[in-house]
Amino acid sequence: MELAKAMRVKRQYVNAVANGRTNVSINRLQQFADALGVPLIALLEGCEELQHQSLCCPCCGARLRLVSDEQEK
After folding, report:
1. Are 72 and 28 spatial neighbours (Cβ–Cβ below 8 Å)?
2. Is the pLDDT of residue 10 over 90?
3. 40 or 52, higher pLDDT
């Protein structure tokens, strides 16, 4: 998976985030945006879930829940 390779994480992690099986910190979300070649705001715009502290991936529509760096560990 090219996204996982670009982020230097396991593809299982990317799949878990995309499928809502794990949380993602804002720092990790920035890594997703960088790897996708889009500004971070592009992952945030137009998502109703944002008001519930989760985000939508503009590529696949998966929900990404925001957590602090401490909660991600």
Report:
1. yes
2. yes
3. 40
Q: Which residues of 42-67 are buried (b: 16+ CB within 10 A; e: fewer)?
A: ebbeebeeeeeebbbbeeeeeebebb
The pLDDT tens digits for 15-49 are: 888 888 888 888 888 998 898 888 888 777 655 55
Q: Two tokens at 42?
A: 């592009």
Residue in the structure block whose two tokens are 């998966």: 62
Three-state secondary structure along 7-52?
A: HCCCHHHHHHHHCCCCCEEHHHHHHHHHHHCCCHHHHHCCCHHHHH
